[in-house]
Amino acid sequence: MSQLKPISSHMDGGAPSTPGKFKVDKSPFVHHRLRWHSSLAKLAFWSFVFLGLILLFFYRSPSSPPSSASDRRLLRHSSHPSAPWGGPSWEKRVRSSARVRSGRLTVLVTGAAGFIGSHVSLALRHRGDGVLGLDNFNDYYDPSLKRARQALLERARVFIVEGDVNDAALLTKLFDVVPFTHVMHLAAQAGVRYAMKNPASYIHSNVAGLVSLFEACKSANPQPAVVWASSSSVYGLNSKVPFSESDRTDRPASLYAATKKAGEEIAHTYNHIYGLSITGLRFFTVYGPWGRPDMAYFFFTKDILRGKGIPIFETPDHGTVARDFTYIDDVVKGCLASLDTAGKSTGSGGKKRGPAPLRVFNLGNTSPLPVAKLVGILERLLKVKANRMMVKMPRNGDVPFTHANISLAAKELGYKPTTDLATGLKKFVKWYLSYYDSGKRSSG
Ligand SMILES: O=C(O)[C@H]1O[C@H](OP(=O)(O)OP(=O)(O)OC[C@H]2O[C@@H](n3ccc(=O)[nH]c3=O)[C@H](O)[C@@H]2O)[C@H](O)[C@@H](O)[C@H]1O
């Protein structure tokens, strides 16, 4: 150690005041000191590398199979909030769910326990595609509904991996196990008004989660084509109707809309840099059986049956608020057509090989109806008079109307919605009554 002193004292002399004029001392004593110095540096370097490897091992360990029940319990409370994953039997389930005859698609569906995700997963499975679901089963709305959808998918032999799209190690593992041809990315924080209450969840799911997913897709070999859920809300404060894909989308009225708009820009980047084939779908107020309890048609049904007041929004000048309500089966057809026509990603292992498709489509119904009309249809179907309350639309992200121009989707996807609101709500109410009125379940 004493040998170090001259060096440190030499260094203590400070850096040269004039850069480039540092005088090199060539005495043998200094060579000796330098040898000491370099071997010490080597030792420090290799210790550092060794320590790094140990840390890396511990950091990556959740992706390797947990060896015991107690390991699995620990993982549940570790940095990954999702259920434990990995291990031979888990991989077997993943492979078998995604297995497919040659020529069919192998699709990873994120948000598979969600409303649109569960319908799309079933439709893909029914036509013979390989499907693996991914869902974090969060409690934004009643998770038991998500579990019931999961049970439905299990009956169709679709396995839903329990995990978050932000879990990069899990995504890497899934792509290691299955060479997905397509990803249908529907996992998101939905709901326009909730963004005022929990803004962070929108950034986490709709921005960070989307980037995490694109990162995994761009690194995968082969790269899949990605179809993902954007939203009609990106049209924001536009007043020109119907909304066309080429219209401006730079005036979002809610943070939800802003995160979807951000997603569209992020999609452009990943398409541009990595050659990912990406299709964004702007959904217009999708409704139907197995729907989302946070949406108006769903909780209106519940509240009409309970005799509670129904707040019907109107514009500040007492004008009607209207939506281009779109039935789930029509949207599912649009999703499948988007997957079928996606075109290939061109990159591999993170390197772009050429230009790839970047598309965005409106999936709406082209016939907006006032919310009051929706309530009237529900009254008729439920045979109960609603306790209507006209309320000024709160300034919390809602827009007064939406109306889709679907000519692009019609041309490129053959998209043609066929279900009007009365027909679609009839199917929803039938499902609602059988699901909740069986006496076993509570609608909260
Ligand atoms: O197209 C989308 O991209 C979005 O569609 C959906 O948003 P919205 O069109 O706002 O649906 P939803 O809440 O069912 O309100 C329906 C109507 O009822 C009105 N409304 C609502 C609540 C209320 O208490 N009273 C009322 O009149 C309200 O003003 C509105 O006119 C999805 O939730 C969203 O995740 C996103 O996918």
Automatic annotation (TrEMBL):
<protein>
    <recommendedName>
        <fullName>UDP-glucuronate 4-epimerase</fullName>
        <ecNumber>5.1.3.6</ecNumber>
    </recommendedName>
</protein>
<keyword id="KW-0520">NAD</keyword>
<dbReference type="GO" id="GO:0032580">
    <property type="term" value="C:Golgi cisterna membrane"/>
</dbReference>
<keyword id="KW-0472">Membrane</keyword>
<feature type="region of interest" description="Disordered">
    <location>
        <begin position="1"/>
        <end position="20"/>
    </location>
</feature>
<keyword id="KW-1133">Transmembrane helix</keyword>
<dbReference type="InterPro" id="IPR036291">
    <property type="entry name" value="NAD(P)-bd_dom_sf"/>
</dbReference>
<dbReference type="Pfam" id="PF01370">
    <property type="entry name" value="Epimerase"/>
</dbReference>
<feature type="domain" description="NAD-dependent epimerase/dehydratase">
    <location>
        <begin position="107"/>
        <end position="341"/>
    </location>
</feature>
<feature type="region of interest" description="Disordered">
    <location>
        <begin position="66"/>
        <end position="90"/>
    </location>
</feature>
<comment type="similarity">
    <text>Belongs to the NAD(P)-dependent epimerase/dehydratase family.</text>
</comment>
<dbReference type="InterPro" id="IPR001509">
    <property type="entry name" value="Epimerase_deHydtase"/>
</dbReference>
<keyword id="KW-0413">Isomerase</keyword>
<feature type="transmembrane region" description="Helical">
    <location>
        <begin position="40"/>
        <end position="59"/>
    </location>
</feature>
<keyword id="KW-0812">Transmembrane</keyword>
<dbReference type="GO" id="GO:0050378">
    <property type="term" value="F:UDP-glucuronate 4-epimerase activity"/>
</dbReference>
